[in-house]
Amino acid sequence: MDTQVAILGGGNLGTALAKGLARTEEASSKYDVTITRRNADLIRYLEDDGITVTTDNTAAVEEADLVILSVQPTQIEDLVNDIKPVLDPQQHILISTMAGVTDEDITELTGSGFPIFRVMPNTAAAINQAMTCVGKTPHKEAEEKVIELFESLGKTLLINTDLMEAATVLGACGIAFFLRYIRAASQGGIEVGFHAKEAQLIASQTALGAAALLLDSDNHPEHEIDKVTTPKGCTIAGLNEMEHNGLSSALIKGIKVSYEMIEKIR
């Protein structure tokens, strides 16, 4: 029998998770997905991929094995109050994608006894290329099920829960940071002669190739950089100009500021 997954919150991230679980035969053969949203018409198109779309959180949870809480942190209390009558610690594994909401916060709302996991995927889950950090808990049997679910959506890393805010910035916000780099590289490509679509294709595929080199080799980035920098060459000239204008410093500062923002709202 397929594992029943309820995604409560059909926003950008919840929708990305649903799409990824329906996208490949491996995932769709393991998981039956139901996703909820107040205005279900906004995500009704997901039904074309075999995903159940509903406004009824209680009905979604009642049949589920894995319950993914993917709403805004300010909505979690109302959501738990809605589904609490049908929550069962013997049946449900609770998975939270909410930044700044701790296991203790959720336990206080649901009551004790539930295996609760904090996870931080990103929107690349929609194409099964997510990076998902999973917070460690004592619930090892349930942990295996959670990791298996998110492995079907990309890569996973088991981390200490005190690193979840850092994982949010580096992995989830990181999608936007890398996309902004690709946009800038595309604009540079236009300046040196390419049409916009051509420049974006070259920049996007080059970024994909650079990431794939590191994932395949496990090398440090500088090792791969050295392979394309030659004495008095154009690569080192470009790199040095970018660094003189604060490329690395700006990225590091941006990550730190994002992290500090999460800490403020906790």
From TrEMBL:
Q: Which SUPFAM superfamilies match?
A: 6-phosphogluconate dehydrogenase C-terminal domain-like (SSF48179), NAD(P)-binding Rossmann-fold domains (SSF51735)
One Pfam match? P5CR_dimer
Query: Molecular function (GO) terms listed?
Result: pyrroline-5-carboxylate reductase activity
Residue intervals passing through the bilayer: none
Q: Where is the Pyrroline-5-carboxylate reductase dimerisation domain?
A: 162-261
Q: Which keywords does UniProt give here?
A: Amino-acid biosynthesis, Cytoplasm, NADP, Oxidoreductase, Proline biosynthesis
Q: Which GO terms describe its cellular component?
A: cytoplasm
Q: Would you identify the family this protein belongs to, as annotated?
A: Belongs to the pyrroline-5-carboxylate reductase family.
Q: What name does the UniProt record give this protein?
A: Pyrroline-5-carboxylate reductase
Q: Gene encoding this chain?
A: proC
